[in-house]
């Protein structure tokens, strides 16, 4: 193979030669203009010796000294014509004249044979980026067709040029490893901050799922929680912290902890979000989050909620009809200056409600409302336990392991109980009319109800005593209207007294000479739990509950 002949046809060679010729002519013309003094012309010059042009350099000597790997193959079967010293040092000596598939097995193993064919057919260079060769180093291979002086004048040679990119490949691998570790750290933090086991209220059946984004997506701040408030009421919350990575997961953990603390105050949903909004601003003024907080009271058969920029709750009733929770919806948490408001949606026996984050319904090529409508259709046909419904909704949305966003879904069902199961869930109520004479009527009512529910004697007596103390406290410190409500579930007995005064009682130590102040202390002593809250229409509710013995 004559390197001088085909090297003159390498891309750019003709342009450089033409440029040198033009430069020579221009220089000669300029020197011919004007005259040079004789004395100056006779003086010796210090000009450097002439440098040979590129075309005058021996091509083989140049390629032998190139640090990159160079090989030349020709013909349709790519017979090896030349390898430089760098190639020999990397892979050893290679026999010339043999087909590349046999003479250059390293190229065959790296899948370069089709690339040689493509370069030969198209007459255009082809590149294979960053492949690990048998010598353990990474190379980027470029196959460039070159011209030979064949009889038919066709292009029949391919120059293989391999650049060592090991440093770049190792740096990229270190970066990928670092990102993978950061993602694993964020996922571990995210999962550790989510509930390890959901609380299961007496009147609801609940399931949830969380799926982080795929390996190319950093973990976000999706979260959910279920909080039993006492008195048969349950708080449900789901949210999404904007942003990705460990920072979003950390902010999510702080918000979830704050929600649990505010929920213990048993405030209306909009007041919880107002408190949470101020805290979100203090945590990070540049971080915002969406959230919906809802409270279920089995006595009311409704889900009372407040939303801070979050997606609407979906509820399917016992007939299969799906309803979307309407306004009010305020701005996301962390924006500040907004007074949130509460709304409600029916959640009777046989109903199923779904709370979710945007990763379930939002797609880049689809409007958000279309995604929510698709979720409504999927919910209308999804039956079974809450976990089954949860899994079906995730599958119907096309969420896979490589999904580009986090997904959190919370499904709750209010079962319709019939037969023997319904006997374990009973309610009884009494309006407390009149003055002090309401107390003995309340005790007699409670005694009769608890007897009909066949409670054991010790629980019967404790329930009557708690009823007497709560009613007496309401008669002394509250205002009409007053009401006593008894409720039993399969796990506990709940006694609740409501009145029109919004002053919440507190437990205190009564002095030996005090004639009052012991009622709440007695209730707190004999009951499993007790608490109080303000009611939406004004007034308060004071409750206590007893855990039923297991049989």
Which terms would index this structure?
single chain; 551 residues; alpha+beta; six-stranded mixed beta sheet; five-stranded antiparallel beta sheet; 16 helices; elongated; disordered N terminus
Verbal overview:
By secondary structure, the protein is an alpha+beta fold. The N and C termini lie far apart (97 Å). The protein is 35% helix and 25% strand. Strands 7, 8, 9, 10, 13 and 14 form a six-stranded mixed β-sheet that branches. A five-stranded antiparallel β-sheet has the order 2-1-5-4-3, sandwiched between helices. It is elongated and about 125 Å long. It has helices at residues 3-7, 13-32, 38-42, 59-65, 85-91, 100-103, 105-109, 113-122, 166-193, 245-263, 269-283, 368-380, 386-396, 438-452, 457-477, 519-526; strands at residues 69-74, 79-83, 126-132, 138-146, 157-164, 205-211, 221-230, 233-241, 289-297, 302-308, 314-316, 322-324, 329-330, 343-346, 351-356, 407-414, 426-432, 482-488, 492-499, 529-534, 540-547. Residues 1-21 and 23-43 have low confidence and may be disordered. Strand 3 (126-132) and strand 4 form a beta hairpin.
What is the strand and helix layout of this fold?
Blueprint: H1 3-7, H2 13-32, H3 38-42, H4 59-65, E1 69-74, E2 79-83, H5 85-91, H6 100-103, H7 105-109, H8 113-122, E3 126-132, E4 138-146, E5 157-164, H9 166-193, E6 205-211, E7 221-230, E8 233-241, H10 245-263, H11 269-283, E9 289-297, E10 302-308, E11 314-316, E12 322-324, E13 329-330, E14 343-346, E15 351-356, H12 368-380, H13 386-396, E16 407-414, E17 426-432, H14 438-452, H15 457-477, E18 482-488, E19 492-499, H16 519-526, E20 529-534, E21 540-547
Parallel strand pairs: 10-13
Antiparallel strand pairs: 1-2, 1-5, 3-4, 4-5, 6-16, 7-8, 8-9, 9-10, 10-14, 11-12, 11-15, 15-16, 17-18, 18-19, 19-21, 20-21
Helix pairs in contact: 9-10, 10-11, 14-15, 15-16
């Amino acid at each position: 193979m004559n390197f001088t002949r085909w090297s003159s046809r390498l891309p750019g060679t003709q342009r450089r030669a033409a440029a040198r010729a033009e430069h020579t002519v221009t220089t000669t013309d300029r020197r011919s203009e004007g005259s040079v003094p004789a004395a100056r012309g006779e003086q010796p010059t210090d000009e450097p010796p002439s440098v040979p042009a590129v075309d005058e350099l021996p091509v083989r000597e140049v390629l032998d000294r190139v640090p990159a790997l160079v090989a030349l193959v020709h013909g349709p079967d790519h017979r090896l014509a030349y390898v430089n010293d760098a190639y020999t040092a990397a892979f050893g000596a290679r026999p010339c004249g043999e087909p590349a598939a046999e003479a250059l097995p390293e190229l065959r193993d790296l899948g370069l044979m089709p690339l040689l064919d493509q370069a030969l057919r198209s007459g255009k260079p082809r590149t294979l980026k960053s492949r690990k060769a048998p010598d353990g180093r990474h190379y980027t291979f470029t196959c460039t067709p070159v011209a030979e002086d064949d009889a038919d004048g066709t292009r029949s040679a391919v120059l293989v040029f391999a650049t060592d990119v090991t440093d770049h490949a190792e740096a990229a691998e270190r970066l990928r490893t670092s990102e993978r570790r950061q993602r694993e750290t964020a996922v571990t933090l995210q999962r550790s901050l989510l509930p390890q086991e959901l609380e299961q209220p007496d009147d609801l059946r609940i399931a949830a799922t969380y799926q982080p984004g795929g390996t190319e997506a950093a973990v976000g701040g999706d979260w959910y929680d279920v909080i039993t408030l006492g008195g048969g009421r349950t708080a449900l919350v789901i949210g999404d912290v904007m942003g990705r990575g460990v920072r979003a997961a950390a902010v999510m953990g702080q918000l979830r902890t704050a929600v649990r603390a505010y929920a213990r105050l048993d405030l209306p949903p909009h007041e919880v979000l107002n408190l949470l909004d101020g805290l979100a601003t203090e945590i990070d003024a540049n971080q915002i989050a969406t959230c919906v907080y809802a409270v279920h009271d089995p006595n009311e058969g409704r889900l009372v909620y407040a939303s801070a920029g979050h997606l609407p709750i979906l509820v399917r009733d016992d007939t299969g009809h799906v309803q979307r929770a309407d306004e009010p919806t305020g701005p996301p948490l962390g924006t500040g200056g907004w007074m949130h408001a509460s709304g409600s949606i029916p959640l009777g026996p046989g109903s199923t409600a779904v709370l979710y984050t945007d990763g379930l319904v939002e797609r880049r090529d689809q409007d958000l409302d279309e995604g929510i409508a698709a979720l409504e259709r999927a919910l209308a046909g999804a039956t079974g336990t809450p976990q089954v419904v949860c899994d079906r909704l995730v599958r119907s949305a096309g969420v896979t392991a490589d999904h580009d966003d986090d997904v959190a879904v919370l499904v709750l069902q209010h079962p319709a109980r019939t037969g023997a199961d319904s006997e374990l869930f009973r309610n009884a109520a009494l309006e407390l009319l009149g003055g002090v004479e309401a107390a003995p009527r309340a005790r007699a009512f409670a005694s009769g109800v608890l007897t009909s529910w066949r409670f054991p004697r010790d629980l019967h007596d404790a329930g009557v005593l708690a009823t007497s103390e709560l009613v007496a406290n309401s008669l002394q410190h509250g205002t009409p209207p007053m009401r006593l409500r008894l409720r039993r579930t399969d796990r506990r007995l709940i006694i609740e007294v409501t009145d029109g005064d919004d002053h919440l009682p507190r437990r205190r130590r009564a002095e030996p000479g005090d004639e009052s102040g012991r009622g709440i202390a007695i209730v707190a002593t004999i009951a499993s739990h007790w608490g109080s809250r303000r009611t939406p229409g004004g007034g308060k509710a004071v409750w206590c509950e007893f855990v039923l013995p297991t049989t």
